[in-house]
Amino acid sequence: MVDILAQNKDRSLRYEQTYNVITFENKMMGLEGRPEYPKEKPWYFRPGKDSQADYNIISNFNLRQHHFAGPEKRPAEDPPKLVRGKKIDLPAMREYNVVTNRYLEHHDDKLQANNDIQRLEAAKAFWEKNNFNVVNACLFDPEKEEKFVAERTEKAKDHGKDEVKKLP
After folding, report:
1. CA torsion 86→90→91→92, rounded to 10°?
2. Radius of gyration from C-alpha coordinates of the chain
3. Within 10 A of 75 (CB to CB), how many other CB atoms are there?
4. Which of 7, 23, 74, 90 is the most buried (most CB within 10 A)?
5. What integer is the mean pLDDT of 36-53?
6. What is the distance between the alpha carbons of residues 140 and 16, in angstroms, rounded to a whole number?
């Protein structure tokens, strides 16, 4: 059983990260003396950084603090961009932390505002698509209902007169 577990661990180390993504501990520690270990993994993506952000977009931490690669392999920070000698700020870090599912500042107020906006958008979408109340069998808008009933009574007065003309 121990041999099978060791083989599985060896196989996983060939294909997975050699660092623990959460704690950044080296998974290869203790295997330095074995042949072919530690083996450098090729960089399959673009060299350097994979995004224009200088921070981890999930945790909002700087890439020097929170990155999937080991501490010595992390990308260096970009120098500040200058236009006409002035520093240009890139987009700031997110105001919402997707890990904790909370806003960093004024969480309750922003959550209430988001809920209000979503409620209004849902109501707008409902009123654009729905005119008829199936439960009460009438239109939602009373003015439209009155207009429909008036048109129906007018049509009922003429209903069938053309058919009578067709009789011999």
Report:
1. -80
2. 33
3. 15
4. 74
5. 58
6. 58
What does the pLDDT look like over 133-159, one tens digit per residue? Answer: 888 888 888 999 999 999 999 999 888
Give residue for tokens 């069938």. Answer: 160
Nearest to 128 by CA among 141, 117, 137: 141
Taking the whole predicted model, whether its pTM rises above 0.70 is answered as no
Which residues, in sequence order, are CB contacts of 53 under 8 Å at separation 6+? 90, 91
DSSP of 47-69:
SS-SSS-SB-TTT--BTTTS-SS
Q: What is the end-to-end Cα distance of the chain in Å, rounded?
A: 97
Residues 62/54, Cβ–Cβ less than 8 Å? yes
- CB-CB contact of 94 with 53 (8 Å): no
Contact indicator for 65, 73 with CB cutoff of 8 Å:
no
